[in-house]
Each structure stands twice: as C-alpha cells, then as structure tokens.
Design a protein that fits this description.
The chain has seven helices and 30 strands. The protein has 378 residues and is mainly β. It folds into three domains: 125 residues, Beta Barrel (Cathepsin D, subunit A, domain 1); 130 residues, Acid Proteases (Cathepsin D, subunit A, domain 1); 84 residues, Pdz3 Domain, CATH 2.30.42.10.
Amino acid sequence: MKRSIILFALFITFAINSFGSNTNTLDGNIPFKQIGHFILVKGKINDSENDYNFIIDTGGLTFIDRNVAQELALKQRGMMVKINTLNLSGFQIDKIFCFTTFDFKHLRSIGIPIHGIIGSNLLERFKVNFNFKSCSVTFSSDITSLKQSEKGLLLTFRNHPINNAPIVKFKINQKVIEGMIDTGQPYPVVLPLNTFVQYKNSNISAPIKSKGLMAKWPMTTADHNYLTRIKSFEFGNIKIESTICLFGKLPSMLSMPLIGMDFLSQFEITINYPKDEMMMIPYHDIHFENNQFSIGLKLEISEQNKVIVEGLWENSPADKANIQVGDTIISFNSQKATYENLMDLNKIMEDDNIKSINLEVTNQNRRRKIKINKAMLF
C-alpha cells in the first residue's frame, strides 16, 4: 500500500512539472461568487457554448469532472485530460492538464453542479490576488516581487511537493508548525485527526465530537470529527486567542495543518507563486469568531436526490432535537427540501441573523415537524 502511494505521488509530481506552460501576457480580473466558503468562477472550455463551474482551491490539484471531459471529447492522457483553452470571464489560460480522478459527488451538498477545480498546480503560473470584498480574483503574469506594505503581512512560503500549495509557518499554542494555505475548506484551522490526542492534553477547549461527518476529504475513511478551540493562533504579527479548530481525517499524502477561509477571507491576499511569497492585507473590519451560532447540522444529497443528514455535533440543537445521521429532510420553513434549493437551506443555517428554522424530518420509523433554535456550540 505504501509503495503504491509513493508511486502515485511520484506520478503526480512528474505530471505537474511536465505539463502546461503560461502563454498569457495580460492580467485577468475575474469575478467570483462565494458560496459557503467556496470560491466559484465560471469558465468556457475550448470555446464551449456552455459555462462550467470551477472552484478555486489553493489546497487542491486541478481536476475536471470525467463526465464533462467525455462530453467535450477532451484528449486523454492516463489519468489526465488536456484543455486547450480555459476562458474565465475573458481571461484565457492555455494548455491545461487536469486530473479526472476526483469524485464530484462529494461537492453536491453545495447545491449547484461543480464541474472542475482550479488548484495550485495551475495557479502556480501566476501572481494571484484574492479580493474577498469585491469578490474578484486576479491572475497576473507580472511576477515582480511583492513589496512590504505598512498594513500588510509579507510572507515567504515553500510549495507542497504534491499539489504545489503554499506552505507557511505559524504558531499554535506558541509552538511553531507548518500548514497549507487552503481556500477549499471553511474553518480557520484544520488539524489532522491523528494529532488529536496530543492536542487534547494541551490547551484546547473541551472538544465537541461529531455524529457522522461534519467535514470529509476524498480517500479517507474516518467516521467523525472534533470541533474545539485552541488557546492561541499566531500568524506573523497577528495573534488570536481562542481560535476555532476542526480535527479531520486528511488524505495521507496531504495530511498536514490547513489554514482555511474563515481566517483567509479577513484579508486581501496576493500569492506570488513564481517568487514563493504572499502578502496579506487585513480588511478594516477584520474579526475572528471564537464560537459558532448554529443548529449543528451537515447535509448532503443521496443517490436518490434526497436531502439527508450527513453529520451533527453532539449536544448541538440538532442533536437535542433527536435528529439522527441518515434522517431525510423533507422540508424547511414550509419549502420542500430538494437539490435545487439546498443552497437556500444552507444559507439559512449559516446566517447568524436567522435565529431558528422549521424542519420536517423523516426516518424509517416516523415523520415529524420540529422548530430548532440556533445556539452557540461552545
């Protein structure tokens, strides 16, 4: 098993280093939608008539849905296909090789179809700027070194050998560690599940265990997560007391601490991949939550297109309402729960201004209507 993992890692590294080149000379300012924590852009593949939805994920590789690859008759090369041109709101990227091995069913819980992922092994061609206030991302071929800003935090990074994601140093509970900049996951900090025991006996709040999964990664088999708060998180000159942290089972080749969107989105971020440097400029209203106001529920879409409960936090409002993993959500606030309006349901669950939600829930034994009031998880 270990040998196959090593061989796969070597293949990916070879593929990343062998395919694709940047022939672009112009900058591209591309609008995005932030759906939950995901950065979503639309693109046309090889002058396709249809737009396809891509997630920009600095912690991931570049993938295309195999069904889309077949639909567009993309040229196959092993586990990869070639995209001649990807047009993102008028900005064209040439010669892209994408893996087809990602199961996009994992992303159906977003509520809209996702056709591809733009990862750091493609972003590495550019200087990339994320502006979360204007909801835009800029790809620039000008890779001039970044200059120190009076308000900004200038960092150097190394690249992960598998996916080329930026890896930076920071501190947890005053201990220096390395972690990946990951725009593909929500929490401020994610730590590998196999490190939970060592942190459990240090300075963390009483952890909350999940029933089922609240966050999952491909190629992993864990059946639970933990949510807790670490005593201190230091990133450059920024120090945060009592930071929310999730423990999750991560793919073995990418298993390391992750810095996610709940932290990253508080900054305008420029990642100069060719120079291995990044700038983070905090927004004027920067804030970091140390608690979650929630019903404590995670939903997914079943093979039968039903909205079902994938996970919930122990002692959360959903748990106290006796909702179980595998229950089906029939309706919410008198609307039928479907794949088409799952995004609306997710927004209601994530909106702190909405204090409660009415759900109709069913399992094999009974069907019931319940009102659940949100509460702080800690």
